[in-house]
Design goal:
Length: 420
């Protein structure tokens, strides 16, 4: 039986249901999966399924004083491994001094991860996203003498690629969600063997006929309804959307805009809505359970994304599966999902006039756009089927990490097992 440690920055997370999906599919195929999370998360607002995963997850932030001492001792016990970890931290270009210092802490967390995994005879470590959990995975893999891999989406590659060169050199393979990402990696990290980089798309379930759903608050069938779903975070660029709504109002468009999600930008966005006088038009809905999202999709006329960076957004997949019109910036992997004027609409990134013009045009021509809605749903069924893509992920993943492919354990592994 293959034993895999699977770690994310925060797990379980309602915003990343695909992590649970991948773990469940690996287990269905007979793998033993140990769930790990860099940060401790609260069980509040988790679904029953997420809460069951939470109960079995090993958390590594904060560490106890005893865990820190044992992790530091472990790092100091093998100078060769310690140098392998410190060398990129000291010399690779990119990270700020503050991020380098924080990575030292993540190195200690990685040693603590190795301490916990050592007696469990783990064959492989996989990290979801290229953030600090992937450095923990790299550290633990070095100490245990095993291999690791990680998944890259969007911002973790394009905006927060801290020490990514070192991670790509050390990993057995890297999974990414778009052809754009793969080309970007191979172009910007040319020493990376092409066979290391695997494209594996996410997906959504086939949408069944609409159930009887209560309309969301403020729903009004007479008004054109915009919907955006995502965390209230700078990368989502909701100020751009709010400014666009002000322009649409000034042009006389009668509309509602729902922004579904929660996050640190809420106070600033609330102030911006008041500044532009958009109360009664733009609503920060807050967190909505995934089971309740179909009600918002059902009443939306247009689903929009205004992000500065993305992989391939699951939100757009869901909207298209629901036969909804979508409008998104022509960045990263989005044009692989949204074919302009065939399965949806794209606008020039950062161009407020282009976005506003596109919304106005879609509003004026919406009755004649049924063919695009049907084509969108068909494209999702063909290329972004969740179950089919999960099966492909698990099959490829286990073929690469099967015990026959795993090398002999590093001597440090034996030292760790004796010390725990």
């Amino acid at each position: 039986m293959t034993t895999v440690a699977y770690i994310a920055n925060e797990f379980p997370s309602p915003l990343e249901p695909y992590v649970i999906d991948e773990i469940a599919e690996l287990r269905r195929r007979g793998a033993q999966v140990i769930c790990c999370s860099g940060k401790r998360v609260s069980p509040n607002d988790l679904t029953p399924t997420e809460r069951s995963f939470w109960k079995e997850t090993r958390f590594f932030q904060p560490l106890s004083d005893d865990e820190v001492v044992r992790a530091v001792r472990q790092l100091a016990s093998d100078r060769r491994v310690l140098w392998q970890l410190l060398r990129p931290l000291l010399w690779e270009r990119g990270p700020s001094p503050n991020r380098r210092l924080r990575t030292l802490g993540h190195t200690v967390m990685g040693a603590a991860l190795a301490q916990q995994l050592a007696p469990l005879h783990v064959d492989h470590i996989h990290a979801h996203h290229g953030y600090f959990a992937s450095w923990m995975a790299l550290t633990a893999a070095h100490l245990l003498g095993i291999r690791f891999s990680f998944t890259l989406h969007g911002s973790d590659l394009l905006q927060r690629a801290d020490l990514l060169s070192a991670k790509l050199r050390a990993c057995q393979f890297c999974v990414t969600v778009s052809d754009f990402n793969r080309r970007y990696i191979l172009r910007n990290y040319p020493s990376t063997p092409s066979e290391k980089i695997i494209v594996q798309r996410l997906g959504v379930d086939r949408v069944l006929p609409w159930p009887s759903l209560a309309p969301p608050p403020q729903a009004d069938h007479r008004r054109f309804c915009l919907l955006s779903v995502g965390r209230l975070h700078p990368v989502k660029d909701y100020p751009f959307l709010i400014q666009a709504c002000a322009s649409l109002r000034d042009q006389g468009l009668d509309f509602l805009c729902w922004i579904v999600g929660e996050g640190p930008d809420r106070p600033a966005l609330e102030n911006l809505i008041m500044t532009f006088g958009l109360q009664g038009r733009v609503y920060l809905v807050g967190h909505v359970p995934r089971t309740d999202l179909p009600a918002y999709y059902r009443h939306a006329d247009l689903v929009v994304t205004t992000s500065k960076s993305e992989g391939i957004p699951v939100v757009l997949m869901e909207a298209m599966a629901h036969q909804k019109l979508v409008l998104a910036p022509a960045i990263t992997g989005i044009p692989e999902l949204v074919e302009h004027q065939r399965t949806g609409f794209l606008y020039q990134p950062g161009s407020l006039p282009d976005f506003v013009s596109a919304v106005s045009w879609i509003h004026a021509h919406k009755p004649s756009l049924t063919g695009i809605q049907l084509a969108a749903a068909a494209s999702i069924a063909a290329s972004y089927n969740r179950q089919r893509n999960l099966r492909a992920f698990a099959q490829q993943f286990l073929a690469r990490v099967s015990p026959s492919e795993v090398g002999h354990a590093h001597p440090v592994l034996q030292q760790i097992r004796l010390s725990v």
